[in-house]
Amino acid sequence: MRFGFLLKRGKPEARSLAVELGRVLHEQGCALVVLEEEAATLPQARVVPGADLGGAVDALVVLGGDGTLLLGASLVSDHGVPIFGVNLGSLGFITHYARGEADAALADACRGKLGIEERVRLTVTIGGPGAGAGQRRSAVNDAVLTQPALARLLDLEARLDGAVIATYKADGLIVATPTGSTAYTLAAGGPILTPDVQAMVLTPICPHTLTHRPLVVRPDAELRVTNVSGGAVTLTVDGQWGHEIPDGGWIDVRKAERPLRLFKSPTPFFGILRQKLSWGERQV
Q1: Is position 78 annotated as part of the catalytic site?
Q2: Extended strands (E) in the chain
Q3: What is the pTM of this model?
């Protein structure tokens, strides 16, 4: 197998761990692949540009936090490459493995003994007037429409399969996956979905009416959100990429053709919630 490595920038711990895990994989007869910035960390590895990483590897090892994994997913998920995430950050909802677990688990992955789970991703396409129409990005967590600068209410018209859901008057709107349900949308009052659910969640941010509440819809529906605010709004995808959507512009959100593929966590989902969010614990 060919294992790629993606390391969190500015994290010396990630470099030392990459050397350790690279040794484990080499002993298992696996090949290593890195981006140019990590050529000195793993000199025995093949170096490829980021655009070619997905086609050059059979699995990707991410050493960092969830943000680094989201970057890795944008590079390899369209190729169906599974990701092995080692948490060197804070929460680590999708970087499943602690440093102490990584050696043995990665050796199992190299031998084909570690299971893989699949999760819904979204494809976000920009439409309407202005620059950027036709641009497309994939989301593991969410697509978010918010104010570009000034604190003002937005008007965002949402349609599902052509039928009007509502025109949200709010600070913004989040369209999230089940994986993203424990991220921004949770802070905005959205529900937690288990990762195996096939759905997407619409959550208004600080809506100006009590009747606008989070909505769960099927992911194969055709969702369009149009900016009717009279001014531009900002689209952010997975906190990694942003673009301005002018008045009258829209985004189309669909289930992506390829899911996110992750090597299975050693901890069940509700165990992760208990660890990370104190799920079910009584607050004293």
Answers
A1: no
A2: 2-7, 31-34, 46-47, 59-64, 83-87, 116-119, 122-127, 136-139, 142-146, 154-160, 163-170, 172-176, 200-205, 215-217, 223-227, 233-237, 241-245, 250-255, 260-263
A3: 0.93
